[in-house]
Amino acid sequence: MTQKMIALPIHNVKLLDDITEIIFDRALKRQNYTHIYAQMCACMINDPKFNKLATDTKITFQKVLLKKCYDVFYTNYRQELNKLKEKMKNDKMVYILLFVYQVPKRRMSTLNNFQFDFNKKSICNCRFIGELFRKGAVPEKVILSCIRDLSKENYENYELQMHCLCTILQLVGPILSKTSYDLNKPVNKLLPSINNHGMSTTLKCLIQQVKKMHSKGWMDEGKK
Q1: CA angle 214, 223, 67 (to 5 degrees)
Q2: Highest mean predicted confidence (pLDDT) among 3-12, 16-25, 78-87
Q3: Whether residue 220 has pLDDT greater than 60
Q4: Spatial contact of 105 and 93, defined as CB atoms under 8 Å apart
Q5: Against a cut of 0.70, is the pTM above it?
């Protein structure tokens, strides 16, 4: 499959973007195969002919792919939620049901589904970014930027923020531990959530796994 993708005659930005979108979309939706898509992307990025268009542009497959990762990574939850509400209002039937007659169950179900999908996509994107780094498809500065941003206290959905940080650290910790980067800061950012009664059991287990990996010098790579 990878060789067939590399053999495709791509000579314009639109086609490159379309192909990248297909791969990116499948990588996020098929989370059990994220590492396979990351390996495919690494091969495509490392192929000089495929990674650069046969034009004078500076656009590459790697840049287009990272742009899509960044777009999801930095998507603002509140802004997307407001867009959904605005879309619901523009749909007359939905507006009547949810806002005029105020059907609480229907409205709550719609919003809950949105939050679930948003969280899932964000976590899968972080897993994909981590796998890309493991396969050598993205530079170290990209993954460090993600870790630094997730370690800041500027996220509205704090639990999602910590879940994403855990996901990335589990994947890239073993590699970064061999560099000069200090992993104590992002790990210490996670620890207070263990005693936070408002956090889910799933997240607490993830944090414990990261804590254990860190204490053992990242010898155990944990779940992929």
Answers
A1: 90
A2: 16-25
A3: no
A4: no
A5: yes
Q: Is 154 exposed, middle or buried (0-12, 13-18, 19+ CB in 10 A)?
A: exposed
Residue tagged 């990588």 (tokens) = 27
CB 200 within 8 A of CB 206: no
> Buried b / exposed e across 17-37, counting CB within 10 Å, b at 16+?
bebbeebbeebbeeeeebbeb
Q: Mean pLDDT over residues 125-148, rounded?
A: 95
Which range has highest mean pLDDT (37-41, 58-62, 72-76, 157-161)?
37-41
Could you identify the residue written with the tokens 């806002």?
A: 99
Distance CA 121, CA 29 (A): 8
Reduce the DSSP state of residue 48 to 3 states and report it. Answer: helix
Query: For the segment 167-204, what is each residue's pLDDT rounded down to a tens digit?
Result: 999 999 999 999 999 999 999 999 988 888 888 999 99
CB atoms inside a 10 Å sphere around CB 96: 11
Q: How many CB atoms lie within 10 A of CB 54?
A: 10
* Nearest one of 62, 20, 59, 58 to 45, comparing CA atoms: 62
